[in-house]
Amino acid sequence: MEQTLPNCTSCGSEYTYLDGALFVCPMCAHEWTQDSVEEAEEALKVRDANGQELADGDTVTVIKDLKVKGASSVIKQGTKVKGIRLVDPEDGHDIDCKIPGFGQIGLKSIYVKKIK
């Protein structure tokens, strides 16, 4: 049975090899451990205010009143947001969604709670 080695986490090369407990990339000389790969994957997960993992299409509730730049009103606590989309964080806004009355807007995951 052949073991599948991960691609290099630095340059993406597929020519990695195992040297003891370290993965090594011969293309860029980057070395890493399996633990560092798992930690990086965990850091990429988006979590709500309660620590639950969020995914595209989830429904969330806003947990506090949020001021919106350029708008005279606020997004009220308890506002239900359906069909969120996770995006690469831009100024901490890692959720893209559409809120009735506001339109397309970016939210920070720390201000929402996942609805089961």
From TrEMBL:
<dbReference type="Pfam" id="PF03831">
    <property type="entry name" value="YjdM"/>
</dbReference>
<comment type="similarity">
    <text>Belongs to the YjdM family.</text>
</comment>
<dbReference type="InterPro" id="IPR013988">
    <property type="entry name" value="YjdM_C"/>
</dbReference>
<protein>
    <submittedName>
        <fullName>Alkylphosphonate utilization operon protein PhnA</fullName>
    </submittedName>
</protein>
<dbReference type="InterPro" id="IPR013987">
    <property type="entry name" value="YjdM_N"/>
</dbReference>
<feature type="domain" description="Protein YjdM N-terminal">
    <location>
        <begin position="4"/>
        <end position="33"/>
    </location>
</feature>
<dbReference type="Pfam" id="PF08274">
    <property type="entry name" value="Zn_Ribbon_YjdM"/>
</dbReference>
<dbReference type="InterPro" id="IPR004624">
    <property type="entry name" value="YjdM"/>
</dbReference>
<feature type="domain" description="Protein YjdM C-terminal">
    <location>
        <begin position="46"/>
        <end position="114"/>
    </location>
</feature>
